[in-house]
Amino acid sequence: MSSPTDARELFQRFEGNPIITASDFPNMVNAVFNPGATVFEGRTLLLVRVEHRTGLSSLAVALSDDGLTGWRIDPERGLEPDPSLVEECWGIEDPRITRIDDLYYVVYVGYSAYGPMVNLATTRDFITWERCGVLQPPEDKDAALFPVTFEGRWALMHRPVTSAPGLGAHVWLSYSPDLHYWGDSRVLLAARRGGWWDANKVGLGPPPLLTDQGWLVCYHGVRVTASGSIYRLGLALLDRDDPSKVISRGNEWIFGPQAPYEQSGDVPDVVFPCGWILREDGDTLHLYYGAADSVVCAATASLAQLMSHLGVHPFTRN
Ligand code: BMA
Question: How far is the CA of 212 from the centre of ligand 1 (A)?
């Protein structure tokens, strides 16, 4: 295994990791992880999953001027679960933020009494929210909206789960004319099988990122070992005009749990990003991820290097 600071890695961990921990919160909370990310009023905003000592989660806002340091929790902003709603009675988790102009579409997991499901809320300021209801019923999670429509239809990547044994969990793509009725669903990125790092279970990470070669997708793959699951990250590229076409998919994982804060915590061996931000130079990419379901971390990559990695790694289906 390479070291957490190996210069050959595509993503370099921020040396100040973890950037946000439970001790940054004024009240006693268990863990903070799996942040969505966006730019808000010129600053980097993380919408952080806060797991309380009840076991249930809510979403809190942390802000930074440079996206790496000086994080401040904003107690005025954030989203609390509404206990009167069956679709989030056991908390809300793992938000993905898609910004369209000054409106932020937050797709999050609602932990309903019937299982985890995909819900949408919109906001302009992360103070006042409009809940837009259910996008996908249980069990479904790891979902995000594209920031554009395709021939007038919204597109959602999401990850339903089948109860049939041995059939795996795969990333799907669904369309909607109105963010309400969803259909034309198809498997987009299937989990591979057998010995692959992304065998049996995959899920979307941050929302897809538009590049000059298509939509860059970062997804997690779960490998089940004798001592538990390992959550690692891989890359894929979708056609710019028709995101149902997978142009390429890397064979190798490109980021995995190697630092101590990723290898130990409430759930060891997990890196789980829900947001990334391409900086104004058009190349610096900041990835924001939960480590070991315990703390929030950041890593930096060059977009050009990610794209060339995809270019040289052929797409092997299984
Ligand atoms: C996934 C999600 C994430 C979590 C990960 C590892 O299924 O529930 O919220 O980080 O498992 O526990």
Answer: 31
